[in-house]
Amino acid sequence: MLDINTIRKDFPILDQKVNGQKLIYFDNAATSQTPNQVVDSIVDYYKRTNSNIHRGNHKLSIQATTAYEDVRKKLHKYFNSRLPQEIIFTSGTTQSINIITLGYTDLLTSKDEVIVSEMEHHSNIVPVQMLCERTGAKLNVIPMDNQGNLILKEFDKFISEKTKLVFVSHVSNALGTVNPISYIINKSHEVGAKVLIDGAQGASHFEIDFQKLDIDYYTVSAHKMCGPTGTGILYGKEELLNKLSPWHGGGEMIDEVSFEKTTYGELPHKFEPGTPNIAGVIAFGAAIEYMDNIGLDNIQAHEDELLKYCTQELKEIEGLKIYGEAKNKIAVISFNVEGIHHYDLGSLLDQFGVAVRIGHHCAQPVMNYFKIPGTVRISFSFYNTKEEIDLMIKALKRAITMLQ
Amino acid sequence: MTDMLAIQDEIVAEFSSFDNWADRYEYMIELGKSLPLIDPKYKVDNNLIKGCQSNVWLHSETNDGKLIFTADSDAILTKGIIAILIRVFSNQDPDSIMEAKTDFIDKIGLKNHLSPIRANGLLSMIKELKMYAVKSKTRSN
Ligand SMILES: Cc1ncc(COP(=O)(O)O)c(C=O)c1O
């Protein structure tokens, strides 16, 4: 059991009024809030340690380098990668995916095939489309059913010796569906295809063991798991990352530079050109520690309870339709109310102090599937409460009355 | 033709009579319902205004040298906003429309309630209304 009242003291941002109303923050799938411990780690870094890493051999630089590399080790343990250097620091999921798609430019030809799913976030679609355009590889799309589950029979049909890469999200940000990544990974490995799991919505809810799941590539955004914005990781198996060309050139990523020939550095430096977001990485480490202390089991149990309770309450509302009713889903609820535009609902909820996301959630193919322009999306984190859900439901009912 | 500034003052006065946001929003919804609706045959992609979070269609016709605007949107609050704009801009001559100031929008407190994206949508609508005036002038010259 979580002691939510104590936990909420770590998040002063939650304790404020917006538009004259008590803030209810239900937009956690977009960005989660940052506890004091994480904010303090950023402030501390700039007050005491700030200096460039991997370069100077003075005290501060050594301290900063150690702190930065310690986070790599921490994430390596946390996600159980085989080696620390398999953890590449990036600006987040979007950049992580692009590193892979750019890295494969020389490795694919027009004879190859790539698979993506219909429920992906645009950042797991657009870079893949660009890769296919560059190389001529064929793109196959796994369709989904009306509950928001991927249709695995169709995936099975696409999988062949021609398949080189598969891009699937661990969890859909628009529908909340938890995808059967083990099945997809195993099936893909049977034909020698590699799989990238977009973990933007996964890592904040589940314990993930990179080795046990035999994951080839996994991406994480720190800002969705109590960390700062602009920081994240790309995980990749060493032997795979070694084969990829670096995506950007610059300082820090080289072995030797001359005008005759430049050779690239080893992992992880090959993929971390330039001065990275050092403070962000250190704060990401603090965020992982924070979540680990609370315990992902506890987090999951609490969020599941909120999901069940809220789903039940929402279903009582006449004309309300929920999109995404997979059996295995996280605490994300997308919905619309008959005859009302999601924009109107979102605007009124905002006036009631309730922060939700409205629109297509960067997943237009999902919206096209349901033939809707968008939805209202509520998403919970472990610091949310049933009382907040009650207040939201009251606000929602009032908004519906106003709009009908 | 009532003077555009007079209409704007009228709107500002109406909005200042509300002392809470819910009443103001309810009034916007009322206005949205009274929007002079676009003829379905003009509800086409060509008449969609770019930059709005919901679909907004705008059409204009000339009547006796004045522009008559009709519009529609799939969101009722957006319809309310266009209804306010159309009340000011419709039934005016192109020159007045082109020169019209729109600071009344700040005075009714609408912008405070709009996110930057939505405020952009509002600017796009105003730009579009003025574009119709420009086009109508170039046609008649
Ligand atoms: C499933 C999914 N993939 C990718 C992203 C992109 O993450 P970021 O914006 O942190 O790069 C998001 C974030 O919205 C997401 O939810």
Task: Tell me what the structure shows.
With 404 residues, chain A is an alpha/beta fold. Chain A has two domains: 4-26 and 295-403, Aspartate Aminotransferase, domain 1; 39-293, 3-Layer(aba) Sandwich (Aspartate Aminotransferase, domain 2). Chain A has 13 helices and 17 strands. A seven-stranded mixed beta sheet of chain A has the order 4-10-9-8-7-5-6, sandwiched between helices. Chain A has a four-stranded antiparallel beta sheet with strand order 13-14-17-16, covered by helices on one side. In chain A, helix 2 packs antiparallel against helix 9 (278-294). Chain B is mostly helical and 141 residues long. Chain B has a single domain, classed as Sufe protein. Chain: A (Alpha-Beta Complex), CATH 3.90.1010.10. Chain B is built from six helices and two strands; from the N terminus they run ααββαααα. Chain B has a two-stranded antiparallel sheet with strand order 1-2. Chain B is globular. The mean pLDDT of chain B is 87. The complex binds pyridoxal-5'-phosphate. The site of pyridoxal-5'-phosphate has 12 residues of chain A, from helix 4.
Task: Give the helix/strand layout.
The complex is a heterodimer of chains A (404) and B (141).
Chain A: H1 4-9, E1 17-18, E2 21-22, E3 24-25, H2 36-49, H3 59-78, E4 87-90, H4 93-103, E5 113-117, H5 126-135, E6 138-142, H6 152-158, E7 163-169, H7 181-190, E8 194-198, E9 217-221, E10 232-236, H8 238-243, E11 254-256, E12 263-264, H9 278-294, H10 296-315, E13 320-323, E14 332-337, H11 342-351, E15 354-355, E16 357-359, H12 364-370, E17 375-379, H13 386-403
Parallel strand pairs in A: 3-15, 5-6, 5-7, 7-8, 8-9
Antiparallel strand pairs in A: 1-2, 4-10, 9-10, 11-12, 13-14, 14-17, 16-17
Helix pairs in contact in A: 2-9, 3-9, 4-5, 10-13, 11-13
Chain B: H1 4-16, H2 21-33, E1 56-63, E2 66-73, H3 76-89, H4 94-99, H5 104-107, H6 116-140
